[in-house]
TetR family transcriptional regulator
Amino acid sequence: MKKKELTTNQLIEAAFDLFAEHGLERTSLGMIASKVGITKPSIYYHFSSKEELISRTFDHIFKDHHYDKYFQTDSITKENFIETLYQRGLVMLPDGNKEHFAVLRVLGEFMMLAEREEIYRERLTNMHQEFLNGFRDLLLKGVSYGVVSSQTTDNKAYMLALVIDNISRCMMMKFDMNYQDVWKETVNSVLIEEARAEFQK
């Protein structure tokens, strides 16, 4: 790897760590430069501004955050639909490591930034819409299998996405809750009555 590429990646990683600890606004370019052991002017060799570094950090954090990473819809069958929805939903939740919680903290920073800057509002909206579309398509497959009601499918997709998001935040804040049971109840709520009975076995 070339020195420029290595240093650029180091700057992004350092920026991520500091954004998670101090927030976007309170993290200065000087702090980032100090963390990787270079002078502040050297940052401009890699990024034209703090804004560009923030944008590149966003891309770095969420480059692999796609619905298909968690749910491969084509591999879901009638027999494994319910268990897959439950188990893969759990995979989307934080696993307790510090990096995952750091991502959630930085995501919160970008959500606040999105209130002021349209470009981040659009990027976050597109990311969330991808997951909503994925859940909707998954539920429609469940409808075709006869395990999910055909009514209010879009609302059910929103609910799945919102519950995942809120459980993640509660886990980050160390709320005392059985998040697996909460997710199980959520999955249960989108199933038809006969499928619920099977899921509870």
User: Anything to note?
Assistant: The chain has a mean pLDDT of 90. The chain is about 70% helix and 0% strand. The radius of gyration is 20 Å.
